[in-house]
Input
Amino acid sequence: MEFFSLAGNIATHIEDSKKGDKTVLLLHGYMETMYVWEDIYKELSRDYRVIRMDMPGHGLSCTAPVNTMELMATVAKGVLDVCGVEKATVVGHSMGGFAALKCCELFADRFEKMVLLNSHPYPETEEDAALRRREQEVISAGKLMQLAELSIPKMFHPSSLRRLDEKILEMTELCDTHDPAGIVASIKGLVQRGDTSAFLASCKIPVMAVCGDSDGLVTAEYRARIASECKNVRLEILPECGHNVFLEYPERTLELLREFI
Output
């Protein structure tokens, strides 16, 4: 069931499958909407109660002046409250993974497991922040869709581009639902996010991180650091895969999620 509700004082677009003993909360990434989870949502709903949402500033959800990771975590926890869910496994893709880390840090009693898809716990580098600021300038100039058309295909492994051209086009077209001010507010939140690596290394709940071996954002250096510094994290690296493991290899991702949950 799709509906709107206030969550953490943000009007939020939510879908809740309603049925299942265990609950999975799906948090999408930057410039995505909850519909990016369509296939994963349908498949996981066979076995679990699945909740997905448009993150603040994305899709049909409203925005704050700055969508910090703390705000996103508060909204995600508010969605669980609205849906009457006491505990959930949180699955976050990219930016959604940054928010998932904050969910488990700030609201530890509400989350029983965490999955990071193409995400990491490290703060923005100066180079990352500079790129974000340039994106902000492009969006503020009214060119959000042009940015989407250029950047979204780059998130995929070259071998995935032809076979997933319809999915890439769909993701790009859905960017037209974003309020540009909401995306800018989310960029500001991404730049401001802190270092959660110490939290991840000491996290008491089970954690799995799934990355592509050709992910240009969760680089080989970041993957090596997670393996070295976060011994408690189950790290899975998929071959010939970019920044979208659940889209590029949905069957393997689903297999890992079901096994882990």
Q: What stands out?
A: The mean pLDDT is 96. Residues 69-83 form the longest helix (15 residues).
